[in-house]
């Protein structure tokens, strides 16, 4: 039963209302969250030969729940995707893309899809993102944009370094802390300082916004801490260097 009334409780022959309704349907969407205002920075995937690139991928669930599987079909030649299923209690997870040393320098627009981890549910969805075209005054307002539905993924030239997270020998305990060891593998002649950040922190885990590995150095230590409610689980994280 649905009842509609005028907000003052009045009625008249000209007070006409129309109600529309339809069955609820499950809907799944995929996107890469923004890390900078008015920018697509890190919302596209560019993987250096023989290296890795990672990003956060978010999903939106409407009228359903459960774990999500990212499919990663039809990637450019030489690229593979590494990720776990997204648990039902999370909407954002890290996804790592790896490029072979001999991967062709190329790129494509990928129809990036996800589905419910249980194929019997028959719930799936694709990627969408808003690309900003024109920003101006007053107030640095956004005037021109376009919604896009494919994810750009490319293989680019080799970089002069790569990062390695040294897997800890002991767990991070609740109400505890640790120093996560980050190793830089440099090519000969490359000595620049490198900024490192951990864009994904498991629930209940805190970390510094970033650390810097000084010029010429090959090791940095990233401080992590866990609160009393940190979720107990084996988590995969990634480090992003620049």
Q: Average pLDDT across residues?
A: 93
- What structural class should be given to the helix and strand makeup? mainly beta
Helicity, in percent?
under 10%
Low-confidence parts, pLDDT < 50 over ≥5 residues? Answer: none
Rg to the nearest angstrom? 23 Å
> Distance between termini?
59 Å
For the largest beta sheet, what order do the strands appear in spatially? 1-3-6-5
Would you report the number of β strands?
19
Reading the helices and strands in chain order gives: EEEEEEEEEEEEEEEEEEE
Coarse shape? globular
Kindly estimate the percentage of residues that lie in beta strands according to DSSP.
35-45%
Number of discrete helical segments? 0
Most strands sheet? 4 strands, antiparallel
Topology:
Elements: E1 27-31, E2 45-48, E3 52-62, E4 68-70, E5 79-82, E6 92-99, E7 107-110, E8 113-116, E9 124-126, E10 129-136, E11 141-148, E12 151-156, E13 161-165, E14 177-186, E15 194-197, E16 205-207, E17 211-213, E18 219-226, E19 240-241
Parallel strand pairs: 2-12
Antiparallel strand pairs: 1-3, 3-6, 4-8, 5-6, 7-12, 8-9, 10-11, 13-14, 14-18, 15-17, 15-19, 16-18
